TrEMBL record, chain A:
Record's protein name: ABC transporter permease
Protein's cellular compartments: Cell membrane
Keywords linked to the UniProt accession: Cell membrane, Membrane, Transmembrane, Transmembrane helix
Pfam families noted in UniProt: BPD_transp_2
């Protein structure tokens, strides 16, 4: 894979835009931390140390970058084609539960077991995304609402299934309820010793690159993209939009389900209800920051992972609350969404207007 | 000395590095009709938008009644007596004409309550004075286009305009409607109002104007009166070379039926029957024009022909096969091409490259060497062919199509379908809103492709275009085909116009 590192003027502007947004986030973050009576310098230092300061810090960064990449790609698939799949979290729960059960129940050689777990995870996510897809295609139900609500259904239903699987007696220990440990043959190897980083990161990057290639070289990828650019135009051009919509839902659901699988096979090792605190939503945010570019998703996810890993450390060594980082992540999404070019144009117009008025008053 | 109402001196407008207007000087005399003509992208609209206070000039001055003015917004311009009627009407369909007229200029009692009575009286006075008869209590959505246009003009007068700018006012009208508009314009100028007219149509310019200003590439290339001008002269000033208006058509063989439509009935989205029991056929190598006032059912007819809308009943046969319920993809595979009216909404994806826009349709109809992969060489080759054959002005095929001018986008949209070796082309308003040079070019292409044996179904709201190109003309009125006329030299616009308005019909 060759990455084009020479940037066009357009690319330079985009990089500049990210830098401006990051700078603004830092400034606003400092103000928030100051307002809580803490030192921003100390907090950011702790953040940096927590993200990159040691092998274990780097491991944690990688650990959190992994699900961010996969859910981010799942969101990219949907958003690029104008489908608002915000049910990634729910699709991921199903993938995770099924792969955890398969990982415990079946006995297989190592390589095969991992592949099987990954595939059933993807398929479960895909089957769950089939519900909003059918609702949209047959009954024209807005997928934003159906996928959003199905997240709750998924969260509670997988919890129910866990109880069912473990026997309802276990419910006395509601906090500790989880599926049994997966077989070692279904677990991914640890990437850096004594850290939570696993080889799942390679699966994540692999998925991102495959999706990038899909858009770049295939006819289907072209159709997926054009459906998002202009649906009317695609219909007119002979794209079968119904089957394309179905593909988008299923593919996005498949990837979301795989994220659940890698989480189980990587860090967790067993399914615990509600394990994924907002991982699906992270994907939604990352896709919008990355402007639906699969390769950009990889980079943004590493920043995301670093922030997450750093924020835990920051909370331990300083007084600053970890939630500040969540606020800053959301702010970053907002600031990247701003159309700086239009803002600049407006500013120029105003300047020109002032000049004209000055001329006018000079004449009189 | 003559009475100058508006003077523009050294006006420039730059959009980034693009020069839209460069050193424009123009004087408009009171109570005259002053036409501004030029190709698309020549800077007419930019100039008018600056005069109407919508854009701010980069340089230059505007004088109204000899006094220098600077407009911050359209309201400032309105206060100086300048009003503009835009090409797209800015009326609220749900509101009555009276309410529409009051909008933004409400007369109130005690500051809060609308004073409809006074507004009605004032508006009625204006209507009486300038002989407009518009029903004030009807909803805007119930009125025909020609009346809506009058409403827009009255609105501008109500705001106290002395200078009325009309942007392409005749584009939406029938020949009869155009006559009515011209009568109104003459009446306005007799009563001391000044009219600035932006248009493409040279015939109209010659008929109505007192003065003509020609723009080309943002600069003035001519200031003249109709007496000094001729259509040929104006066209060459606009384009910078001689323009052939009369397309040369050769006698050609017309083959057997390629497309046969029988008793087709189509409903619009809201369930209204828009096409009623329509039957017609298109023969091989024939150009069949469809004329009609906008909204007579042409849009629905075309959509159902291309599989974008499901007909209620009837049958469409193509090459002898029933294609009534085929999807657009099936139509593409069967070598039917479609140039949609709405080039930005349906005809292209604005943020994508020229290449991505060119291969749409091609990728199903022709397929690449490997049908699963976009073959870069083939895609580039085809896009380059479109760009070269249709002389699209663009840096490369990877340029974003949205950055091109309207005429160039249209060339891509038309070129894509024409270069695909289709057997039938459904072409809808191929020259809408583009400049004279590009119109001539696209007309030539249509004639050429028909000579090569491709059938063309041409739907256009420009009657002139239909009459110029077609071998046969179908006239639609209210969802029915009321006329099936052979386009001979004897056929004139007035006759077709009568059919378009339902005043005349073929005996069935």
């Amino acid at each position: 894979m060759k990455l084009n590192l020479r940037l066009s003027t357009n690319g330079k502007l985009t990089v500049l835009k990210y830098l401006v947004a990051a700078l603004l986030v830092m400034i606003i973050g400092s103000i928030i931390i100051l307002s809580q009576g803490n030192s921003p310098a100390e907090a950011f230092k702790a953040l940096g140390v927590g993200a990159f300061g040691s092998v274990s810090a780097i491991g944690t960064t990688i650990r959190w970058a992994t699900p961010s990449i996969i859910t981010g790609i799942s969101a990219v698939i949907a958003f690029k084609s104008g489908i608002w799949n915000v049910g990634i979290e729910g699709q991921m729960y199903f993938g995770a539960f099924v792969s955890a059960v398969v990982g415990y129940q079946l006995l297989m050689p190592r390589g095969v077991h991992i592949v099987v777990c990954l595939l059933v995870a993807g398929l479960s996510g895909m089957i769950f995304s089939f519900i909003p897809a059918i609702l949209k295609l047959l009954l024209d139900v807005n997928e934003l609402i159906s996928t959003l609500m199905l997240n709750y259904a998924a969260l509670l239903f997988t919890e129910y299934l866990t109880f069912k699987y473990m026997g309802f007696d276990a419910s006395e220990l509601a906090d500790a309820i989880a599926t049994p440990d997966m077989q070692p043959t279904a677990r991914l190897s640890v990437l850096l010793p004594r850290t939570s980083a696993t080889t799942a990161i390679f699966i994540a990057i692999g998925i991102a690159i495959l999706v990038h290639l899909l858009y770049k070289y295939t006819v289907k990828g072209y159709e997926l993209k054009m459906v998002g650019e202009n649906l009317k135009f695609s219909k007119f051009g002979g794209v079968n939009y119904k089957s394309t919509f179905l593909t988008i839902f299923l593919l996005s659901g498949f990837i979301a389900g795989m994220c659940g699988g890698t989480e189980m096979m990587g860090t967790f090792g067993k399914f615990r209800p509600g394990f994924a605190t907002n991982l699906g939503w992270d994907g939604v945010m990352i896709a919008s920051i990355a402007k639906n570019n699969p390769i950009a998703v990889i980079f943004i996810s590493f920043i995301w992972g670093a922030l997450k890993s750093g924020s835990f450390h920051m909370e331990r060594v300083t007084e600053t609350n970890r939630l500040v980082i969540s606020v800053l992540q959301a702010l970053f999404v907002l600031l990247v969404a701003i159309d700086y070019e239009a803002l600049y144009k407006w500013f120029c117009d105003q300047k020109q207007l002032r000049m004209l008025r000055k001329q006018e008053s000079g004449v009189q | 000395m003559e009475d100058v109402i508006l003077e523009v001196k050294g006006m420039c407008k730059y959009f980034g590095s693009l020069v839209a207007n460069e050193d424009i000087n123009m004087t408009v005399k009171r109570a005259s009709v002053h036409s501004i003509i030029g190709e698309n992208g020549a800077g007419k609209s930019t100039l008018m938008n600056m005069i109407a206070g919508i854009y701010k000039p980069s340089k230059g001055e505007v004088f109204v009644n000899g006094k220098k003015v600077v407009f911050r917004n359209p309201n400032d311009a309105a206060k100086c007596g300048i009003g503009m009627v835009h090409q797209e009407f800015m009326l609220y369909p749900e509101l009555t004409v009276l309410e529409n007229l009051m909008m933004g200029f409400e007369t109130t009692r005690m500051g809060y309550f609308l004073d409809r009575k006074k507004a009605r009286k004032d508006i009625q006075e204006i209507c009486d004075k300038y002989k407009f008869s518009i029903p004030l209590d009807e909803k805007a959505q119930d009125l025909p286009v020609s009346l809506l246009q009058q409403v827009e003009i009255v609105k501008v007068l109500y705001k106290g305009a002395d200078i009325i700018i009309l942007d392409e006012p005749t584009a939406v009208l029938t020949p009869q409607g155009i006559e009515g508009l011209f009568d109104a314009i003459r009446y306005l100028t007799e009563h001391g109002k000044t009219v600035i007219l932006i248009t493409h149509k040279l015939k109209e310019v010659m008929e109505i104007s007192d003065y003509i200003t020609v723009l080309k590439n943002g600069r003035v290339t001519g200031n003249l009166t109709p007496a000094e001008a001729s259509e040929q002269l104006l066209a060459s000033l606009m384009v910078g070379r001689e323009v052939l208006f009369n397309t040369q058509k050769q006698e050609k063989e017309i083959g057997e039926d390629l497309l046969a439509v029988k008793d087709l009935t189509v409903k619009s989205d809201d369930g209204v029957v828009k096409v009623k029991n329509v039957s017609f056929s298109v023969k091989k190598g024939e150009i069949v024009g469809v004329a009609g006032v906008a909204g007579s059912g042409q849009g629905e007819l075309i959509e159902s022909l291309f599989g974008l809308r499901r007909p209620e009943s009837g049958e469409i046969r193509y090459k002898g096969e029933n294609i009534t319920h085929l999807s657009p993809r099936g139509h593409r595979v069967d070598r039917i091409g479609y140039v949609p009216q709405d080039r930005l909404g349906t005809g292209c994806a604005r943020d994508s490259s020229i290449l991505e826009n060119c291969i749409m349709g091609y990728h199903v109809a022709h397929k690449f060497k490997n049908p699963l992969l976009v073959n870069k060489k083939e895609a580039e080759g085809f896009s380059k062919q479109v760009v070269e054959d249709f002389s699209v002005k663009a840096e490369s095929v990877y340029t974003q199509i949205g950055t091109l001018s309207g005429g160039n986008i249209q060339k891509v949209v038309v070129g894509r379908e024409f270069c695909q070796e289709n057997d039938l082309l459904v072409v809808e308003d191929p020259t809408r809103g583009i400049d004279v040079g590009a119109i001539e070019f696209i007309w030539q292409k249509i004639i050429q492709i028909a000579e090569a044996g491709v059938s063309v179904l041409l739907v256009s709201h420009e009657l002139g275009e239909v009459m110029e190109l077609s071998d046969r003309i179908l006239v639609m009125y209210n969802g029915e085909i009321t006329g099936n006329l052979r386009n001979t030299d004897e056929l004139d616009e007035q006759t077709v116009g009568m059919y378009m308005l339902g005043g005349k019909r073929d005996e069935a």
